[in-house]
Amino acid sequence: MTKGKLSTKHLLGIKYITAQDIQLIFETAEKFKDVINRPIKKVPSLRDVTIANLFFENSTRTKLSFELAEKRLSADVINFSSSNSSVKKGETLLDTVNNILSMKVDMIVMRHPAPGAHFFLSKHIDAQIVNAGDGTHEHPTQALLDAFSMREKIGPLKGKKICIFGDILHSRVALSNIFCLQKLGAKVRVCGPPTLIPKHIEALGVEYSYDLKDSLNWCDVANVLRIQLERQDIKYIPSLREYSMYYGINKSVLDDLNKEITILHPGPMNRGVEISSDVADSDHSIILQQVENGVAVRMAVLFLLANQRGLEAN
Q: pTM of the full predicted structure?
């Protein structure tokens, strides 16, 4: 296994890592993908390392993916959910984490509704922190697995045209994807209704468009995001039906293109809204590959962070 070192102690966001870090994560993930596809899927790389999964927001796919990655690496795993914890009784984030650290935890994987919660913790605790999503800010491992999956399908991303469709305004996946793809040399565009495109998005160095068909014709890869209704305090679109009419990606829309494109979706999918079943389940789609690659990429992140501090098994 590679002995390369990341440039950072934590994975707080794609913004804080380098293109070399991303390439190292991808090279390591390729090796771990071989591991998880063999009959014996475990390696002792993180034997005696204790990892706490702290999820202050509901999650199914990300939590399962991290837990499986940790167990494949032979780590000891503690799962924490705020729904049945002292957080409900008014305990602060720092008190909660310090109580968990007193159990000799080495690494924390955390999802939190407050943007910047991970950065705050990194200044106050010694354990390594992996951001599994913070509010509408970043979701770095999702961006890494998305880019890894694109690279696997279409080759190096330098110069490739990637368009992110949907609710850009409320999506932490979109921001992490933008940072990651730009560091890999891709050209990035976002597309959606004007109300769901952040103001001054061009300051990030990306194009924006309100035209679905033009953007599909422009791109090599379409990364389709869902409408984040749970993060919207007002109505940004008249209805899901109208959104689907103007921005839903279906087979007839793809059939009208003069080329083939690759389709991704970070999930959960709202079938029949932003994407139709005949697209999600088509040969264009690499959605299931994203899920498989998610475990390998998260194994790589955890292993490399442990390696950075000399925690991995000898």
A: 0.94
Cα dist. 290→114, 167, 298 in Å?
Answer: 26, 20, 12
172-204, pLDDT tens digit by residue? 999 999 999 999 999 999 999 999 999 999 999
**Thinking of the domain 140-288, which architecture would CATH place it in?**
3-Layer(aba) Sandwich (3.40)
- Residue 141 tokens read as 């491992």
CATH class of the 14-137+291-308 domain in this structure: alpha beta
How do residues 263-283 score in pLDDT, each as one tens digit? 999 999 999 999 999 999 999
Burial of 101 (0-12, 13-18, 19+ CB in 10 A): middle
Per-domain residue ranges of the chain: 14-137+291-308, 140-288
How far is 294 from 148, CA to CA, in rounded Å? 9
CA–CA dist 77, 74 (Å, integer)? 9
**Residue located via tokens 């390998």:** 296
Diameter over CA atoms, the chain: 59
